[in-house]
Every structure is written in C-alpha cells, then in structure tokens.
Design brief:
Blueprint lengths: L2 H6 L9 H18 L4 H9 L1 H16 L13 H22 L3 H13 L2 H11 L10 H22 L3 H8 L11 E3 L2 E3 L2 H12 L5 H10 L1 H18 L5 H21 L1 H9 L4 H22 L3 H4 L5 H22 L1 H7 L9
Antiparallel strand pairs: 1-2
Helix pairs in contact: 2-3, 2-4, 2-13, 2-14, 2-15, 4-8, 4-10, 4-13, 5-8, 5-15, 6-7, 8-10, 9-10, 12-13, 13-14, 15-17, 17-18
Length: 352
Amino acid sequence: MNQDCLEDQVYPNPKRVAWVDIARVFTMLCTMLTHAPVVDALKRGMWFTGSGRMCLLFLVAGYFMGKRKEGSSVYFPHAGRALRMFWAYIILIGLYVLFLGWTPYWTWQVLDPLLSGSIAQKFDVVERIFGIGDQPPGPFWFLRDLILLTLMCGGLIYLRRKKLLLMISLALLCFGKELACNHFVIGVYQVIHPREIAFFSLGVCLTPVSLATIADFLRKRSLIILVATAVVLFYEWGTLSHPSPLGISFYMLFVCVIALGIERYWPAFAKWMAGLGETVFLVYVIHMLLISLIWHLVRLWFKDPSAMLPEWSWFMIVPLMYLAIHYFGMWIKRLSPNLFSLLAIRTRPPYR
C-alpha cells in the first residue's frame, strides 16, 4: 500500500495526548489575559507574543485536519466542516449582538446603520461583520480565516504529496513580517495573513510525523529550546514591533516544552488541565464577550471601575472565566452533543 493510501485512511481514536491539550489551554489563558485590562507592562508582552499564540493554534489545526480525509471530494475534503464553522459564525455573532448590542461599538458601527442606514451602509456593515475585505469584530477574524484554511486543506494535502508544500510555506513567511496576524492589508482590503497560511501549512506538512516522535524530539532538546527562546524573544522585543517567524517558531516550541514538562512532573494536574482543552475554541469566542460585558457593566454602575476591578484581579478572573465557560460547554454537551460540536468547532482532537 502506497503512502497516499495510508494518508487517506481514517485514523483510529486511541488515548488523547495531554501535552497538546495543555499547550492549547495555556495559549488560550494567555490570549484571555491579553484582552483583559491587566497591568500595562504585561499587556505589552502579551500583545508582542500574540502572533506566536495564534500561529500555534493554526499549526495544531493544520496538523489534525491534514490527518484524514473526511469527505468524498478530493479538493474540498473538509467542506462539511467549513459549513459547520460558518453556521457557528452566524450563531456566535448573534450572541454578541444580543448581549453587546447596547454598547457603543455595536450600536454605532453595526445596529444603527443596519437598521436605519442606506443600502450602501447596510452592505458595508454586512461586509464588516463577515470580514469581507475588513476585519470582523471581536475574535471572529480567527474563525473567518480558519474557515478559509479549512476549505484550502485539500489543496494543501495535494501539495504535501507533491513535496511542494514545505517550500511554499517557508516562502509565505517572508510576507507581512512586521504585521500582526489579523492586520495584513492589500490596498484597502484586510485579508488573511500569509503567515497564517504558512503555519497552517506547516501543520499539514507535519501530519505524517507522529505526536510521540514530536514529543521525543522536544524533550531531548528542551533546555536548548528554553534558552534559545529567551535569547531570541529578548532581542526581538527591543528591535521589532512583532516577533519574526524565528521568534514565533521558538515561542511555539517553548509552549510545547512547558506543556510536556507539566505532563511529566505533575501528571494528575496535567490530566485535569488537558480536559479543559475540549472547549478551547468555545472559550476563545466567548471570553471577549464576557470581558466586554463585565467591563461595560462595571463602568456603567461604578464611577471608578479600576477601584472595583483592579488590574491584578483579572489574574483570578481570567482562569475562573475559563472554567465557567468550560463547564457551561460541558453542560451544553450533555444536553445536546450536536450543538456543542457546532459551537466548539470540534476539529480532530489530539490523538497519538
């Protein structure tokens, strides 16, 4: 049986790999702190490493989407998954309008022109919400780009088989190096960043390599990775507005090494933390809604919001918020597994 046939087989569902889920949970907690009103110095550091966090999520998505072919279409094997993501996109935007429609951004930028604006203004709002040539509100740029990458997955798998994908991925890293993942513009139109395509593609390239092999490689070089990450990011912090592809790569390796360390030295905690990985995407799309809602309500009810919710308090609020969304998701899963799969954008989980 040739390699192509082997890659097309549906992989069995053995034991989940904890360190992959831990890396995703760690990444999401850092992302939540980035969006919370925390200490300014920490926020700057979080913003600087933001590209590394999002690229790690794209890399992981590419790895597991490239593992198997779901549909009968050769060119669009994940079209069904992309359609489910699109419906989740609609539902989640509806939640934002429902709970934040009274806030200034959603009132002035979305609801007012949508309800009482001209035809041109209505189309402009629709384009903005769905990220057509513009950055969609809140966290939805990530879902928009993930939908596009999911549709591209069949073509990327074909390029991997032809030994062309790695070369193309490395070439894409040359574009938009000084820009964040969601700020790549051609003319006046904001489009998917080539770096996102590159790291998603690198994930597809790594698909033939088992997670056990990747983990063994990282464990043997953990000290080198930790030291190199500190050196590279320290240098780039003082010279660049965003980390380079090298800095992003070392940041991702650093997170994975930390996750492997947690799995090895605190197995009970690692097992619990890995269990939180099932709702990572649900946490991602809902946490900004909750942070915005809490902050708007505090500003509405109290004259001095920072006294009511000081910056240090968000270090406790963020983990509690993650847990609240996670267990809310588990409750939805118990009531309606299909609805949970839709809202949590269930991709292939991290199996061996």
